[in-house]
Amino acid sequence: IALNLEEIPYDIKPVNLVKSSGEQHSNEFREINPMEKVPALHIDNHTLIESVTVEKLLSSSAGKYCVGDEITLADCCLVPQIYNARKFHVDLTPFSTILRIGRHLEHHPAFPATHPNNQPDCPPEAIK
């Protein structure tokens, strides 16, 4: 998604994790990632083989919001998902970029005004 939003050209090389006990264990994939794990992101003659490394690269080059420094529909969709994740006690700590963006959006007047707890029909017991 991020590559598409930034209009960065890329080639998809699917890795079937089920077929033949997992294609990530093939010799071909082992040349890309000796740890035999996905994802593997190849950028500028470098291959990033850990999700955390990929996330750090993307977060260090990311803007204030989902797609740069301007609020987009992606941000409008993200905020309710963060709310629902918290409502159902999903641990978001592994998703530092999502949390960072959420913190920025919480301070924009459009988002707190539409928070479910701020709606006229919100039951008092739902407000935490």
UniProtKB/TrEMBL annotation:
Residues 1-124 form the GST C-terminal domain. One of its GO terms (cellular component) is mitochondrion. This is MAAI2 isomerase. It comes from the Eukaryota. Coiled coil: none annotated. Keywords: Isomerase. GO terms for molecular function: glutathione transferase activity; maleylacetoacetate isomerase activity. Residues 1-66 form the GST N-terminal domain. One of its GO terms (biological process) is glutathione metabolic process. Pfam families: GST_N_2. PROSITE patterns: GST_CTER, GST_NTER.
